[in-house]
């Protein structure tokens, strides 16, 4: 069993320690657990230095085609299953010949899309297909996730009410839903100002079962949303514009309360689980914490720097420290 005692976590002290990483000049070193790889076809022209690099760095024509495919895909590809390069009209059969200055590459490959694991998705949430290539896209993704979090907290409040939970716990969920409405409206306005549309969240109906709620909260609330509070606090201090710093500062304070609510709810649920269910929830949470550095690195790489996210290495270090502290506080094994 991964955990031997009732988890008792004070999130604000952990958040402070993680945010102090930078000030201390520390070393060099979901949540979205298990992001699903996708398979796509890519096609495009490769020329100039990109073609030159593929020609010189590949040992075989197959290697060269794969390097060119990575250029065309503009994604971190996991596996390239099929690749074809075609030279210019005059000599399509010899794309890698010296002097050829443009080729067309067609390939099929798998890749793992970046996911922003910072926030509380409702049970049954269906991930929106938004590729982040600009600040407007980033606002759109986060407005979408904030709107999804409204549903998550409303469902949680209703469910807790039906379970006869303390009125104060239900009220905290309702207050959190109201916070998420404000977050969604603010990010929605920024996305639209930058010209992006915000897709409405879609979700399957939630499972009305205490164990399912405990599993969901252990990851979405205790890991994703709690880490969102830390990242938002970093953004509050590092976003380029004063407008964004002020916004992220408000978000950080709210998300810290939501993260603490998740851990308080976790303790409430814990008391109502069987030993076997506790072990399963602890294992799920430990897996989410283990995956947090990698998912944070990906999310950081996909975030425009002006928004104040830590860089990919720093985000991974923050997530590692955050996970270590939470494991220690909750009595979870690494
Ligand atoms: Fe939020
Ligand atoms: Fe939240």
Structure summary:
With 334 residues, this protein is mainly alpha-helical.
Task: Characterise the protein shown here.
The chain is mainly alpha-helical and 334 residues long. It folds into 2 domains: 11-34 and 116-330, Ferritin (Up-down Bundle); 38-111. Helix content is 59%, strand content 10%. It has 9 helices and 5 strands; from the N terminus they run αβααβββααβαααα. It has helices at 11-23, 48-57, 61-73, 135-162, 167-193, 210-238, 242-270, 275-302, 312-330; strands spanning 38-47, 77-86, 102-111, 125-126, 202-203. The protein has a 3-stranded antiparallel beta sheet. Helix 6 (210-238) runs antiparallel to helix 7 (242-270). The protein is elongated and about 75 Å long. Bound molecules: fe (ii) ion (2 copies). Residues 119-120, 149, 180, 225, 255, 258 line the site of one fe (ii) ion.
């Amino acid at each position: 069993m991964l955990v031997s005692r009732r988890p008792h976590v004070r999130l604000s002290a952990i958040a402070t320690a993680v945010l102090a990483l930078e000030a201390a000049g520390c070393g060099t070193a979901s949540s979205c657990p298990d992001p699903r790889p996708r398979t796509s076809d890519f096609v495009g022209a490769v020329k100039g230095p990109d073609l030159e690099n593929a020609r010189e760095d590949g040992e075989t024509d197959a290697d060269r085609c794969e390097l060119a495919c990575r250029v065309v895909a503009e994604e971190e590809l996991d596996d390239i299953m099929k690749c074809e390069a075609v030279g210019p009209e005059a000599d399509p059969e010899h794309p890698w010949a010296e002097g050829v200055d443009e080729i067309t590459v067609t390939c099929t490959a798998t890749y793992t899309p970046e996911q922003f694991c910072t926030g509380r998705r409702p049970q049954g949430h269906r991930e929106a297909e938004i590729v982040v290539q600009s600040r407007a896209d980033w606002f759109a993704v986060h407005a979408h996730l904030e709107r999804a979090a409204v549903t998550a907290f409303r469902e949680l409040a209703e469910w807790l009410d039906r379970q006869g939970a303390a009125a104060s716990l239900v009220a905290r969920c309702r207050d959190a839903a109201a916070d998420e409405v404000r977050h969604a409206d603010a990010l929605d306005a920024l996305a639209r100002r930058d010209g992006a549309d915000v897709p409405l969240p879609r979700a399957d109906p939630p499972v009305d079962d205490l164990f399912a709620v405990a599993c969901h909260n252990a990851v979405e609330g205790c890991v994703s949303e709690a880490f969102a509070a830390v990242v938002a606090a970093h953004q509050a201090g590092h976003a380029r514009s004063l407008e964004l710093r002020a916004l992220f500062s408000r978000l950080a304070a709210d998300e810290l309360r939501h993260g603490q609510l998740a851990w308080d709810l976790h303790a409430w649920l814990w008391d109502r689980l069987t030993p076997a269910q506790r072990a399963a929830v602890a294992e799920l949470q430990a897996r989410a914490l283990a995956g947090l550095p990698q998912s944070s690195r990906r999310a950081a790489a996909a975030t425009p720097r002006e928004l104040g996210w830590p860089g990919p290495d720093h985000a991974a270090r923050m997530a590692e420290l955050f996970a270590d502290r939470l494991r220690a506080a909750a009595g979870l094994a690494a």
